[in-house]
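Changelog-adjacent note: as of this version, every example in the card shows the full chain rather than a window. The one below runs 282 residues end to end.
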Amino acid sequence: MNNLTLTAPAKLNLFLHINNQREDGYHELESLFTFLDFGDELEFNLTDDDQISIIGDTNDIKTEDNLIFKAAQALLPYKQKNQGVTISLKKCLPMGGGVGGGSSDAATTLLALNSLWQCHLDLQILAEIGLTLGADVPVFINGKTAIAQGVGEKLDTVEIEHKWYCVVFPNVHISTAKIFTHPDLPRNTPKLTSQWYIQNTSNDCEALVKKLYPEVEKTLQWLLKYGPSRMTGTGACCFVELDSEQSARRVLSELPNAWQGFIAPSHAVSLAHRQLASWLKE
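Full-length structure tokens:
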């Protein structure tokens, strides 16, 4: 079993509240993460040398700066097989879109190589390693619809109704660092009670992003024709929740040519985790 292909799924922040900024600069937040059955495709092939190679849709990112490479490197001290790996990336998620592409790729790499290299690390240890790569990585390691708190590392699994989503990328790339360091970002939203699901929620980044990137506001306004629209993460992707695949396809078919989009159902367990479980049974 020297090869494995997994989908690094998109995530949506169904809400994102920023509660506080810590002295170290990190923000404390609360967010409801869910996963979509759509994402980047990563193919892992073990090799007889000890090299880590990344090929495919790397967007000319230097290997040493690639989160996939960093994730693989992070597992080197734990690997039990004296083999390297070639990782082929087929990119389907937009960069700077707020759907977790880079973090999902990193988490999926940790999950895959933990099995291929027989590291035998549990998800808690993998999440701790993932947190050193990015605040969202533990969410993808956990792989279940969850409320995230702290800087994203405290996760409580929750159950929500499965829906279809149309996700629209208005071809605007947004820097997460730019948004989280902006003085106008709200940083004092009260923490939710246990009754989070009946309270009014929002994305605290949305107003600022709309102000700085008018194309995002235009996208949100366009999606309102089909239902309540919201931005995910720090943007730029926006989404609308729908009851059926047919409804989602209709929205996508009417998408303006200037934007990109995709449709997918949500799932309580990420596609990468389901695929890995199936592979392990073979």
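Structural remarks: The chain has a mean pLDDT of 94.
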